[in-house]
Specification:
The complex is a heterodimer of chains A (543) and B (426).
Chain A: H1 2-18, H2 53-70, H3 81-93, H4 99-107, H5 113-123, H6 125-139, H7 152-163, H8 168-177, E1 180-181, H9 189-192, H10 197-209, H11 228-235, E2 241-244, E3 255-258, H12 295-303, H13 308-323, H14 343-355, H15 360-369, E4 397-398, H16 401-412, H17 420-428, H18 437-445, H19 460-468, H20 475-482, H21 488-500, H22 506-519, H23 522-534, H24 537-540, E5 541-542
Antiparallel strand pairs in A: 1-3, 2-3, 4-5
Chain B: H1 3-19, H2 22-25, H3 28-38, E1 47-53, E2 77-79, E3 86-88, E4 101-107, H4 114-123, H5 137-145, E5 155-158, E6 176-178, H6 194-215, H7 218-234, H8 249-254, H9 259-273, E7 277-282, H10 291-315, E8 322-328, E9 331-332, E10 347-348, E11 352-358, E12 365-367, E13 369-370, E14 377-379, H11 384-394, E15 402-404, E16 410-412
Parallel strand pairs in B: 1-7, 1-8, 4-12, 5-6, 5-7
Antiparallel strand pairs in B: 2-3, 4-11, 8-11, 9-10, 13-14, 15-16
Helix pairs in contact in B: 4-11, 9-10
The chains are: A mainly alpha (543), B alpha/beta (426).
Amino acid sequence: MLTLRLVFAGMFLAYLSGTMEAADNKPEAPKAKAGKKVAATPKSFASSNLLACKEFSNLIDLEINKKLAAEKSPASPKSSDAEFMRRVYLDLIGRIPSVEEAESFLASSASDKRAKLIEELLADPEFGKHLADIWQALLLPRISDNRRVQAEPLVTWLENQFNTNVSWDKITRELLTATGAQDENGAVTYFVANATVDKMTDSASRLFLGVQLQCAQCHDHPFVEWKQKDYWGMAAFFMKVQTRAPKGKDTGAPTVAETKVVNLKKNNLPEAAQNVPAKFPGDREAKLNEAAPYRPSFADWLVAKNNPYFSRAMVNRVWQQFFGQGMVDPVDDMHEGNAPTHPELLEGLAGQFAASGFDIKHLIRAICNSETYQRSSKPTEGNKDTSLPLLAHMPVRNLSPEQLFDSISTLVGKGNRPSKAEMKKQKQVKGALLRGPRAQFVAFFQPAEGVSQLSYETGIPQVLRLMNSPQMNQTQAFTRLMGKDMPPAAAMEKLFLATLSRKPTPEETEKMNAFLAKAGDSRTGLSDILWVLMNSSEFTLNH
Amino acid sequence: MSQDLINGLYRRDFLRMSALGVGATSLSGWMSVLAANAAKSSTNQKSCILLWMDGGPSHKDTFDLKPESEGAGEFKPISTSAPGVQISEHFPKLAKWMHKAAVLRSMSTGEGAHGRAKYFLHTGYKEGQGGLTYPSLGAIASMEKGVPGFPIPNFITIGGNRSYGSGYLGSAHQPLVVADAARGVENLKPLVGENKFDGRVSLLQEMEKAFHKDYGSEAGAAHQTTYQRAVTMMKSSQAKAFDISQESAAVRSAYGSTKFGDGCLLARRLVETGVRFVEVVLGGWDTHQDNFERVKNLSTQVDSAMSALLKDLQERGLLDSTMVIWMGDFGRTPKINQRGPKPGRDHFPRAWSSVMAGGGIKGGQVIGKTDKNGASVEDRPVSTIDFMATACTGLGIDFTRSIQTPIGRPIRLVEKGANPLKELFS
């Protein structure tokens, strides 16, 4: 057993070093360990040829279909237009389509209408907002220490980065090296919200390397190669960073700066802390200029095209965003004992992502245009077992609180969002969080950390709010949808389109009409139907 | 009120509801299943209230004081109603109940990070082990001992911002999370009249059939179960238990008039109603800084709430059937750290204390022993699985039983090798 572990460890080290090349602040050159054979080294991502979108999508389908064939699992058919439309709206701009948007897409007979819709949504400002929702939750953990940290500067900054398609290496570098006041540079929020050396080390390794380093804080990790000296070696890059919170009458924003010298006392280190030279995790020691900031050296090493961890961590996260589960799951626990479901695909995607210069929209465009993503989520005979994530059909996923709120807002109108003036007023109240109805809703519906999108773990109090709170059941919304004199049958169809983004089936039409006839007053009956549709599994899930 | 009587009362209530035709007309699908299960309900079961001290309380400043040791701290030990058992001076009221409680001074659990420690102590399994999500003790109690068809969840968490859920046991045993005991569970009343609401719910069930048949997803099934549980609760008389404003001001102040005190009062009301497992969370024990001021304040909150809880349970004849557990993530370092103007203590899973009372526990005793500094266990170490097995034994659950998981692999409720503290039960 021990021997096996050693061999494994050796292979892993060789693998690591094999993918790295020498340069200043660049990962080190391949080095064969004395007495050990370098195992088959994977191709460096830096040398992958950039594929056009179509070939990139094909790469995904090829690998997914290969495994389906091996497991003798038949693929479900292509999704219907309505199914695809609802899914891609939720995945790209975080909400269901409006009635008008749904009608226009369903009516189009253009053969490339799916690809066109993907383009439109990628170019929509709501795309950046949706990605900002996802990333701000990761960058700004909702813990009690952060209850006074303003999220808004970070959200605005992220929104802008994603909408202008700033590359992932640039975004990451900016987050990791940001200095200044939070209201002038939203990126400093990341350090403000993870304001100790150990929190920053844990977070940066999980988010950008896909590795849980926190156990190595106190002891050498039993399965993972990275040891306590890797942890504290990485932590050393953050030893000179200081935050300053506004004090007393000072209403300014918190600031982040790198000081000239390491002040160990100020860093408030835990007992297990080791004072070791800065070291790139799993790699060599860093040569740092003591007078200069340390973080940029770490960022340069991290985002280098040939750092296999960086690209892989992001494509795995994006994969989880679209398919509910990473190829390595959990997404931040990539190590040699936790194998990917589709190893070649993970390497391929990571290679393409690096070759494209970490172009996020390029990666997402390829995923959304793939056959795999456009499959129906209805299982067929022979592919019902989902214990292996083969993606024979699309998985059914729970909506995030933001997706649910924005979808309900799409239905009932945008009146729920605070106006610019209101937001400005709230900002002026010192320390006050921006708590519009959306933020309150999100806080109430927030799932526990680590809950998979594939499971519905929304609680009873949340479901009670959806069913019984006046905010979730606004009558004016209904009037807005219905207009004045719409005939009941047409109105009913419109309710289906507004909530489920599809027309009712003949059986449903029959059932609903019978219900309406029994209700007597058709407006009351229709408001019952709207309640039913909004509380249905089909509305609440992304399928 | 005895548990038999409670179960009987609720069953009568339930039958009356069915007799009124609620089941027959509008909620046929769900209610008929519930009625069938109710017939099988067991009686005379035990309940558990877990007082979770989030962050990890310092053992040397609560239940294992070492006044002569290095890093002894500021607090003095006091004598209690249990001869020879001493606890912190900041538990004067609780000291009068120690003849009913056992102090476990030899907890030794190995996980020193909050998330992993809490997961391990709630479920008995390490996070991520075997690729499964494990059920917490509350979910196990709900499955094993909850009365089937009981209209409010058998596992309720109060005051915590995260719960350790039902894992592979599925959404029927998910905890109901009550964020603030004083506000209870909101939105229990429908916006429309009862009949209209029933009409809506039954149309919803009718309409959902096709979706669930076509998609057959785990998330869809859990969504449906959650709605069923919510609607059943809305319609139950037991939901009244969530309203602590029905208690007198004197009772609330006996519990300390704190958020945690309100939580303990709500826990008592829920156990009285027949809920099997209630967890009440008190945060703030992660005292890396300013340990003594904070532990004193938190201890005072625990002192009022826990003593009032034990007294109320005793007066209602429920103490023998209700096990009360006080514990947290881990203990804290025997030495005081040297950081900041107000130093504290850091994480310490190697040796720490928990307390168990009621529920058939033989009180007035101390289990295990730490060395002179409170730094290592000298006698009867209690591992996490030992602890889980003990709690299961107290609840009358066979902890060696295996459960068939959704991935087809049978998993024991508590892993092999657990050694429950038999000496706790007389």
